[in-house]
Design a protein that fits this description.
Number of strands: 3
Order of helices and strands: HHEEEHHHHHHHH
Length: about 250
């Protein structure tokens, strides 16, 4: 029955759905498309307004013409490509199979309840990836080993500070400084120390937000795109400050 309580329930589901998508690294147009598609599964027309930290939704029941509007916060979440894919598939599943609210809520909660990768495994893979960057740019074996260790310490610090809910920019600065100061050990050895220093902070580059910012601007979400790019620029600035402080200290 399409009453006020039903519309409120659907709206809350759409709020949670779009908030999680935005938080896990999806560009704006995809969040809007997926949320609108999920709304149509309930015969609800959805209008979204997106900002960096908040979103607003207006959901209109196309049968009763009742409208519910709400402002909510964007979920703070790590970038999760698996959730991106599965939540997008859920919106199509809802349309194709005429799922009920209860069925969609069950599937949605099941996706969110899946265990994430072990932080230790992520730490290892990020360290190996940065080691590979060092090799790609011409680093030798000693430089690669130092970059691996520096990345491991720097990324571990980032994980801890993120868990403690420290300021994001201070977290980036501290991780950049720790990684680069460890890599400064390379100057004591006969190795490619310049490549070692340059690649020590590459794991902090915000690649996904940069790409999303450009996509948002191209697709007409200029305000959101500029916000993302400004945020990325500040992250890159604090990476540079951390690396620069190391260079000043070891000069």
């Amino acid at each position: 029955m399409h009453d006020r309580e039903w519309l409120l329930r659907v709206s809350r589901l759409l709020c949670d759905y779009s908030s999680h998508l935005m938080g896990c690294g999806v560009h704006t147009s995809r969040v809007v498309r997926n949320t609108k598609r999920l709304g149509l599964a309930f015969d609800v027309y959805v209008t979204l307004s997106t900002f960096q930290n908040t979103m607003s939704i207006s959901a209109m029941d196309m049968i009763t013409n009742k409208v519910h509007s709400e402002i909510f916060e964007v979920e703070k979440s790590p970038i999760l490509f698996s959730h991106n894919t599965e939540l997008s598939a859920l919106s199509w599943d809802a349309i194709d199979n005429k799922l009920t609210v209860e069925e969609i809520e069950e599937k949605y909660n099941k996706i969110l309840s899946k265990h994430l990768l072990d932080p230790k495994l992520i730490l290892l893979m990020v360290s190996l990836a940065n080691l590979s960057f060092c090799k790609l740019f011409g680093g030798d074996a000693i430089s690669m080993l130092i970059v691996f260790l520096a990345t491991a310490f720097g990324f571990f610090l980032k994980q801890v500070m993120t868990k403690w809910m420290c300021n994001n920019y201070m977290t980036i600065f501290a991780s950049s400084f720790i990684a680069s100061i460890i890599c400064s050990v390379s100057f004591l050895f006969d190795c490619s120390s310049d490549i070692c220093m340059a690649t020590s902070v590459l794991y902090l580059i915000p690649g996904v937000p940069l790409v999303n910012g450009v996509i948002d601007i191209i697709e007409g979400y200029t305000l959101m795109g500029l916000t993302r790019l400004i945020n990325c620029s500040l992250i890159i600035l604090f990476i540079a400050v951390g690396l620069g402080l190391t260079l000043i200290l070891i000069k």
